[in-house]
Write a structure and sequence with these properties.
This protein is an alpha/beta fold. It has one domain (about 5-205): Vaccinia Virus protein VP39 (Rossmann fold, 3-Layer(aba) Sandwich), CATH 3.40.50.150. It has 7 helices and 7 strands. Helix 1 packs parallel to helix 3. The longest helix has 18 residues, at about 5-20. The chain starts with a helix and ends with a strand. GO terms for molecular function: methyltransferase activity. This is Class I SAM-dependent methyltransferase. Keywords: Methyltransferase, Transferase. It holds the Pfam family Methyltransf_11.
């Protein structure tokens, strides 16, 4: 395996675990997880930073996570979770799950990295019951043209350094193409980071009728 592959496989999951677990991100995770209920599918489960934030109304969580290293990092969190959690797949673009099965879905900083984000969203749409909700926070294309220009310029570097993560994906457009109607969405910049890295979209989207 080359150095880039080794870095992405063995080092990057540890970096993501620390970066995504900071207190500011936790507050946003709490907001995303609020209101979840029933059977939930979470794509990009990572090292389990959302564990402990699921409301009591959640019956179970099925986790989709491609990284074995990230899943190992999640073990202690999963073991102490009050909600049953099971890893069921590696690829959000091809979910090994039945149609119309889940009440809700969660995606926290995941759509930036999935090679075909629309395919993943269409899979979530397929496995959600009609009217099921996707709770999300994603970084992506900023609302300001000046910031967008920097995102486009730096996207290639970001992809190489951050395991395929993209700075400039249009989150609202992706959701629409994936079969979702946005119920609410806030766009904002995280404090303390350059705007080209910190353009966030947080909200919920409803799975349209099949």
């Amino acid at each position: 395996m080359d150095d880039v592959g080794w870095y992405g496989t063995h080092v990057l999951p540890h970096i993501v675990d620390k970066a995504c677990g900071i207190q500011g991100n936790r507050r946003n995770r709490e907001r995303v997880c609020a209101g979840l209920s029933g059977d939930v599918v979470e794509i990009g489960f990572g090292s389990g930073n959302n564990v402990g934030l699921y409301p009591g109304a959640v019956r179970r969580v099925v986790a989709v996570e491609p990284s074995d290293v990230a899943w190992k990092l999640a073990r202690s969190r999963v073991a102490t979770s009050s909600v049953p959690i099971e890893r069921v797949g590696l690829d959000a673009q091809r979910l090994p799950l039945a149609d119309d099965t889940f009440d809700a879905a969660v995606s926290t900083w995941t759509l930036c990295t999935i090679p075909d984000a629309v395919a993943a969203l269409r899979e979530l749409h397929r496995v959600l019951k009609p009217g099921g909700r996707l709770h999300f926070i994603e970084h992506g294309l900023a609302p300001d043209p000046a910031v967008q220009r920097w995102q486009h310029r730096l996207n290639g570097i970001q992809r190489r350094l951050a395991g395929g993560c993209n700075l400039n994906r249009p989150i609202a457009d992706l959701l629409s193409c994936g079969g979702f109607t946005i119920a609410r969405m806030e766009e904002f910049y995280d404090k303390g980071a350059p705007k080209f890295l910190a353009a966030e979209s947080l909200g919920t989207a409803i799975a349209d009728q099949h």
